[in-house]
Amino acid sequence: MIPLMFSYLFVGSLTAVILPYVQVMLSNHGFSPSVIGLFLSLYESIGIVGPFVIGSLSDRTGKPREVSIAITIVMVLATIPVALSSHPVMIAIFLPLSSFFWRSVYPVQDAMTIKRLGANASRYTYIRSLLTAGFIIFSLLHKATGWLDTSDNRSILMWIVAGGALYLVAIFLVPKDRNIR
């Protein structure tokens, strides 16, 4: 149960970088506010579809832990070109791709958690609140230390990779799924 709790804390740390700083990365590339708005509308539109497709895959395979690992890796990898390339076509391809997988992390993890809790489902709220705690702790840490340089996409990317790595370590420590359906 402890690794599952840490996975929520660390997905919160990842959220503390992705949600506030996606538009900052686009701004750092020099895109105008209207172009950033277009990119973000694409990001959100594709992000709506991801949970349906990935959730269905997770349900069909009965392996939400493994699906969580795969989608986190793909999401982090898809974020690399968004952070490092200012080419509009690259952004138009990889930003929605990262959103497709990123927006799928919560539903897959939530379903996995509820099924693992079984009769103890009342503990779900406590465990899920660790996501909020992770977001707050890491947001304050980034602000207080200045380690995250919002003017440098490589710095933002480094923290996305670090948050993703922490989340993956926690998920790897969650016992393997036994065809949870």
Label this structure with key terms.
6 helices; globular; 181 residues; single chain; mainly alpha
Structure, described:
With 181 residues, this protein is mainly α. Helix content is 83%, strand content 0%. It contains six helices and no strands. Helix 1 packs across helix 5 and helix 3 (64-84) packs antiparallel against helix 6. The longest helix has 30 residues, at 88-117.
Summarize, please:
By secondary structure, the chain is mostly helical. The protein is built from six helices and no strands.
Blueprint (SSEs and pairs):
Layout: H1 2-28, H2 33-61, H3 64-84, H4 88-117, H5 124-145, H6 153-173
Helix pairs in contact: 1-5, 1-6, 2-4, 3-4, 3-6
Mean pLDDT: 91
Low-confidence stretches: none
Number of contiguous helices:
6
What is the 3D form?
globular
* Helix-strand topology string: HHHHHH
Instruction: Classify the secondary structure makeup into a structural class.
Output: mainly alpha
Biggest β-sheet description: none
- The span between the termini is 19 Å
